[in-house]
């Protein structure tokens, strides 16, 4: 519906100025890879996303995937779009060279992924899931499985899916009941999986399902789950898709959004049992899933970013065109001139820019961890970021896509305008790949309480250093930003201390305050990125930079200041609620609802 | 057969053009620059001819300072085999460009010079024709179809009255019109490969061409802003306004 303008220059700015892309590539020993190449890559990805995927977005929504006779047909146009995506090599971006990948840094993959997600999220979920299965196989697959499946998955010839959820096992995977029985050199998988994204389609000649199931001798609970690979078509002796495996989509869901993404109920082994192969060791399925969790969860955070930017762009376009009321001289007034409309647009813009910088910072944390031999410290930073990127960015996306509808007024509530689609599509984001509650619990439990707040303190001291740098600047904007940011960092430190002191003795405390901590950390991290943006902007302006230009830098500066004035205070609010430990929540008994 | 494809760095077609405050020129500071769209079509056509087995090599040639390497890399990423940059400080006039290209075409012994019909910045539409004149080669301008048969290029031209097909004896110059093809999306692996493709550098002096200037740009101006429309009460009033105010009938 609306034209999508890929954020090539902003992504380049963040990679170059905030992440230090050239230095990162040096650390990763990637010869010939630098910011100019990244720019060329972003440019081309931008073209494909805006010219091919974005125009299909509305049609994809209006013509959902169809199910008939245990088979799914994807929305019209997607097969061709997928073929173009694959032919142009985009599925290979970050994959290792050994299996046909281009071995580019994750952070560049994330910048590019934002464009796929923004242009057509329902479609872009498919390659996103393939990357997940590639990661799982890379980390845990045998050499034989890698040789058979990785080159085809990386080339995009086949796609991958993740089969975790069952009717009785959602957020609690300990309840997984699908079984795997040894049968010669393979296993027979039996059971039902639900909510399987892109579980079936006709875009590729094979689909590779990664499935969690229990072996006959499995201990109960989370320690008895194993990971299996179950191809739609079993490979013949030449490694080509051969016989149809006993795994079928038996229905698809009718959903609020992402209509182009078939969400399947998958029946494994209704007949003779689906042939599957064990990935890695028995009973290690869940820890294996966690190794790719960082990528998958951050990937969903990036969907929140992409769709929010798309919504923002549409809102600006409409606000410029829609005329309501008159100026004093009688001329008609586009609604963008009203301060409250500008408030909404700036909230979206500043929020999107903060999210983009955070998404790239968090994704670069993985690259920096790799570059540093997966050092414990660097890895801890990455792990700390993951629930914040997933939880905060997808929650924030609800507000930002909703603001797009608000800017449109009544027209936004009408489907044909297309604003509603972004809102509907975005609604899945805080649910799948671990709900917001799961992210918040992960943050407060695994990432903060478990290490006694060490990783968090390391992040907060980096933030305090940025606050000092801002305050020490001779620039008045930087000083003002520094003052509010320092206050927020102090609040965060106090909240951390409060949590470490009180959580051990109060049973439900961490679960009761985790959401506010997650949101507080999100707004704080966004503030950190905007503060660093401001420092970079000031340095570039002082140096009379001619790469980004005066206008771009001025806009970045104002967007950063808006964040410190209007969005950063939300961090104070959420930290405040957190340490207040609202007693009403405990007091209201379950049977009083 | 070698195909030589000149590519020009111009302001991106999506960018709203700004005028410098003193009206001396278009303001190109921090402006997105791209390959001229007609040049891009020419690159695409050359690549298709190579893929069809008609051509053996596609050579991109670009005239300008170091910064034009961005457009050279874009042409190489599309699929050109190698490139030549002719180093000049400022963009020369069409006649000088034609002389420079003629020298390169001779040196390379190019069988076909496939180029854009014009650049979207200065809209001259001159270089192809001048180049044909200087080299004494046949030209097929405003091409919408190009076919190579034996030692001839069959070029369908978009002319005012419709389509005209001409047969050109190779070597020849063909200039691309908008409908010749739709340029491809560049592939990721090709972006990576482009950096390793050779880019030769030369100068106008090396080519024995003097960079002279016979024209002087006095000023540039933005198009006049469009006036709001009015409603007329009758056909008579409309005719009257067209006659006396707009003076178009």
UniProtKB/TrEMBL annotation, chain A:
Its cofactor is FAD. Residues 162-269 form the Acyl-CoA oxidase/dehydrogenase middle domain. The keyword Transferase does not apply. GO terms for molecular function: flavin adenine dinucleotide binding; oxidoreductase activity, acting on the CH-CH group of donors. It catalyses: 3-(methylsulfanyl)propanoyl-CoA + oxidized [electron-transfer flavoprotein] + H(+) = 3-(methylsulfanyl)acryloyl-CoA + reduced [electron-transfer flavoprotein]. It holds the Pfam family Acyl-CoA_dh_N. Its EC number is 1.3.99.41. Residues 460-587 form the Acetyl-CoA dehydrogenase-like C-terminal domain. Residues 284-446 form the Acyl-CoA dehydrogenase/oxidase C-terminal domain. Keywords: FAD, Flavoprotein, Oxidoreductase. Residues 65-157 form the Acyl-CoA dehydrogenase/oxidase N-terminal domain. It is an enzyme of class 1 (oxidoreductase). Involved in the assimilation of dimethylsulphoniopropionate (DMSP), an important compound in the fixation of carbon in marine phytoplankton, by mediating the conversion of 3-(methylthio)propanoyl-CoA (MMPA-CoA) to 3-(methylthio)acryloyl-CoA (MTA-CoA). Belongs to the acyl-CoA dehydrogenase family. This is 3-methylmercaptopropionyl-CoA dehydrogenase.
Automatic annotation (TrEMBL), chain B:
One of its GO terms (biological process) is carboxylic acid catabolic process. It comes from the Bacteria. Transmembrane segments: none annotated. Residues 23-211 form the Electron transfer flavoprotein alpha/beta-subunit N-terminal domain. PROSITE patterns: ETF_BETA. It holds the Pfam family ETF. GO terms for molecular function: electron transfer activity. Keywords: Electron transport, Transport. Its cofactor is AMP. Belongs to the ETF beta-subunit/FixA family. The electron transfer flavoprotein serves as a specific electron acceptor for other dehydrogenases. It transfers the electrons to the main respiratory chain via ETF-ubiquinone oxidoreductase (ETF dehydrogenase). Heterodimer of an alpha and a beta subunit. This is Electron transfer flavoprotein subunit beta.
